[in-house]
Amino acid sequence: MWRGGTAARGLLRSGGGGSPRAASGTAAAVVQLRQRLEKELEDIRGAGTWKNERVIASRQGPHLRLAGGGAGILNFCANNYLGLSSHPEVIRAAVEALEKFGAGLSSVRFICGTQSIHKDLEEKIARFHQREDAILYASCFDANAGIFEALLTPEDAVLSDELNHASIIDGIRLCKANKYRYKHMDMQDLEAKLQEAQKHRLRLVATDGAFSMDGDIAPLREICQLAQKYDALVFIDECHATGFLGPNGRGTDELLGVMDKVTIINSTLGKALGGAAGGYTTGPKPLIDLLRQRSRPYLFSNSLPPAVVGCASKALDLLMESNAIAQSMAAKTQRFRSKMTAAGFTISGKDHPICPVMLGDARLAAVMAEDMLNRGIYVIGFSYPVVPKGKARIRVQISAVHSDEDIDRCVEAFTEVGRKHGALP
Ligand code: PLP
Asked: Which stretches are annotated as coiled coil (predicted)?
């Protein structure tokens, strides 16, 4: 529980009894703040949207140990799509980078924070995506927060899918461009908005490549055709695609054959690419050069720690050597989706390792997720306001390191739990 600073605590305590007393000045403000926050927290609990954090006492992987017991839990809710978070070569690369380059830079990039490994990783990211250059950030949230403001002015326009990730929405809020929001993956609506936006100097269409709540993939071919017709640029957030979508895991643009038509990619190093942390923008060199001069989360935040750089760099090496890991994840995704569908469940999306098991009712999603954990399967239920009302679901995420037996155990548990709670006949 939050208790304020030492000075405030002193002011709040009466001499002997230690009971709080309202005082003047700072202390009264602290009491007021505390009351307001406690009411807000109560409202969150009352609305049933409180998020609990389960504590893991082992490495990230397909099998987990939870703090306070619960060993051998099968994990189906991490973004560890390729299982690289605990890959021995990734861990070794992190240790080597830590030993050679130290714990961190104590500096932003342009002052004293650029090491050879940062430059190497940026070059590798650009090569992986077949783009001209790349720039690293502490997270993809930062990459999304930094790009729109640096690139767009009040003369320009940005057109954003209504279900884009919160970080894209926040990044767009920070910029002064004219804002258009089109209906989720609705090409008619996008075209109407592009027509409206013709009066502006530049148009940027911004979309998630793959949407994390539904496991659906943006219609990039159609988006790129419209962009060509209305002279617009295309930006994609590839957090749920980089490393595993497309024949070589390059992402949604590779999967849909439009690598040469998407201008800007933002993505994360914190999911499939080793899972540590970090994000980036990759695209035309003058854009990357401009971001180094103007992008606030880049200019005013510490460099990525060497160990984190080491993880991501090794993950990219592994993916550029072979597409076997990405292919293995695709096969497992197929196994889970087809077995669950045969069992009678509705799985949203198509061919994506995010497999939302659609249940509709929020309570049903919560009790089924709890009961799955009782059977040793860790999955999470999502309901309103994270997803629309009446569209509650349990989101399952497949990883290349799940075995076929893990997948089958998960399907069996879902079938038992679904029958028990009336989700299946
Ligand atoms: N974009 C999307 C689509 C995401 O799902 C996420 C993470 O959840 C982010 C951006 C932020 O990524 P990071 O964790 O690197 O900040």
From this structure: none
Q: Please give the number of the atom of ligand 1 that sits closest to the Cα of 270.
A: 15
Beta bridge partners of 347: 357
CB half-sphere exposure, 333, CA atoms < 13 A: 25
Predicted TM-score (pTM) of the model is 0.92
Between CA 164 and CA 211 the distance in angstroms is 7
Contact 151, 204 (CB under 8 A): yes
Per-residue pLDDT tens over the stretch 70-98: 778 999 999 999 999 999 999 999 999 99
Backbone angle region of 27, left / alpha / beta, with phi > 0 → left and psi within -120 to 50 → alpha: alpha
Q: Which domains does the chain have, with CATH numbers?
A: 63-81+323-421 (3.90.1150.10), 88-321 (3.40.640.10)
Q: Catalytic one among 200, 271, 332, 352? A: 271
Q: Is 139 in the pocket of ligand 1 (CB under 6 A)?
A: yes
Q: Is 212 a catalytic residue?
A: yes
Q: Where are the beta strands (DSSP E) in 269-326?
A: 279-283
